[in-house]
Amino acid sequence: MTSVPSTSIASARIRVTNNVITSQVATALLHGLFPDSSPASHIVHIQPSSIDSLEPTYSCPAADLLRNSYASSSGGSNAAIWTEHLSDAQSVYAALDKVSGIATNDTAGWHSSFDHYYDNLSAKQCHSLKLPCSVNDTSLCISQEQANTVYRIGNWEYSYIFRDAPDSTAYSALHYGAYVLELKSRLESTINGTSGLKYVHNVAHDGSISPLLGILQIAVMVWPGMGSEVVFELYSASKNQYFIRVLWSGQPMTTSLPLGKNGVLDMVPIDDFFNYITGTVGANGAALYKACSGI
């Protein structure tokens, strides 16, 4: 991460979620971005945990019902693909549980998806740590082949939940629509000159980036790894001509949207982008609230 010499800390905004790890990241981020600034000027923004749109933690019963209908073991016939993939993975779970000691009838979510195992194994390998071994038999360890299987299944799960299932876009829009509407409002404020912000940096989670990628209909969905970034850049050709570029891992994002050239979000007219948000998420927070409440 390089410093941002053209942007003063007064025109920047750093935001975190209520998870303390994002605050720890933001602390290092501020020192890297603004190395000559005083720590006293380092202000980090956060929303109350009950309404946080960045993580997100705001209540949206309609989103919860929709996801459970296609990505849970209680979803019925609409969740047949999800339950079949869990059934097919029983031998994988059995091998992992033998090492971890997780009970077959666990109720903490270890067997409702591969989320917990994926997080555990990827965190270790991201920090160059060895894969775990059984505390009861140190010769019994998770192999790299098993870890790769977890990563493969985990990527499929995230792609299905946020991108591939027929209701995944609707779910992503409900679940993460509040943040996208905030993004739209912030861009509008910059365009109409009511905001002095030049740089905004949000520190969030894989569960934050994933629905954002779902809303944007990224062409190839993956489980966002540690350090993943989605960047929105606003450009102007003249006072009344604005364009947006969306970067994923440093490159213009390729999507299946009818925006840009062949869905590549590179210098897309801002009005086209705004119209897509309005059509997908809703015109404003009131519309999203009604949708979340099933009104």
Automatic annotation (TrEMBL):
SUPFAM superfamilies: Phosphoglycerate mutase-like. Pfam families: His_Phos_2. InterPro entries: His_Pase_clade-2, His_PPase_superfam, Histidine_acid_phosphatase. It comes from the Eukaryota. One of its GO terms (molecular function) is phosphatase activity. Belongs to the histidine acid phosphatase family. This is Acid phosphatase. It comes from Amanita muscaria (strain Koide BX008).
